[in-house]
Specification:
The complex is a heterodimer of chains A (111) and B (111). Chain A is mainly β. In chain A, 0% of the residues lie in helices and 57% in strands. In chain A, strands 2, 4, 5, 6, 9, 10 and 11 form a 7-stranded mixed β-sheet that branches. Chain B is an all-beta fold and 111 residues long. Chain B contains no helices and 11 strands. Chain B is globular, with a radius of gyration of 13 Å. Classes of the chains: A mainly beta (111), B mainly beta (111).
């Protein structure tokens, strides 16, 4: 069974559209994260939820809104997509922040 | 990754040793990690070291930590073509719940 899964794996969309990326973990972890890897491969934390509560919210445009319907799911909704949003988005989960399990990534391409 | 720096590229011949270096600025790191990312793939945790250790060996991998100089290195013995990937160092700071990644070092192994 996949521990941390993301859908879709690839997403190609046009500027101005609204899209969502989903993440699910079956590890029973309390904390989930979204990281962004840009075209230069820089990886940075965007958001983190602990038991459905937002605990990390880095400097990210308001167009990005995470939603956690339950502690096993953390979705990322992006409004009015821009070219600069093209990146690979990684979801992760942990029980202890020192040990994070990463999903396979979602490659978002905005045209 | 402005708090964690790595050189961008390293090229070695198959069978040689590779040494990938990383410097960090915050001395409150609790754990430091090395992740591997193969082309188009997700993040694989290779190894880690606790901040009160100087060295850790795991099969072909040796991690050295110099706390005084805030320098972390990963040595891969007998480098193989399958080791070609991007290697990220990362840290987690005391009281912080997200990983801070370096910029990644692209290792190219030539046959």
């Amino acid at each position: 069974d996949t521990a941390v899964s993301q859908t879709p794996k690839y997403l190609v969309t046009q500027m101005g559209n609204d899209k969502s990326i989903k993440c699910e973990q079956n590890l029973g972890h309390d904390t989930m994260y979204w990281y962004k890897q840009d075209s230069k491969k820089f990886l940075k934390i965007m958001f983190s939820y602990n038991n459905k509560e937002l605990i990390i919210n880095e400097t990210v445009p308001n167009r990005f809104s995470p939603k956690s319907p339950d502690k096993a799911h953390l979705n990322l909704h992006i409004n009015s997509l821009e070219l600069g949003d093209s990146a690979v988005y990684f979801c992760a989960s942990s029980q202890d922040p020192a040990w994070q399990y990463f999903g396979p990534g979602t490659r978002l391409t905005v045209t | 990754g402005e708090d964690v720096e790595q050189s961008l590229f390293l090229s070695v011949r198959e069978g040689d040793s590779s040494v990938i270096n990383c410097t960090y600025t915050d001395s409150s790191s609790t754990y430091l990690y090395w992740y591997k990312q193969e082309p188009g793939a997700g993040l694989q945790l290779l190894t880690y070291i606790f901040s009160n250790m100087d060295m850790k060996q795991d099969q072909r991998l040796t991690v050295l930590l110099n706390k005084k100089d805030k320098h972390l290195s990963l040595r891969i013995a007998d480098t193989q073509t399958g080791d070609s990937a991007i290697y990220f160092c990362a840290e987690i700071l005391t009281g912080r719940r997200a990983l801070t990644f370096g910029s990644g070092t692209r290792l190219q192994v030539q046959p």
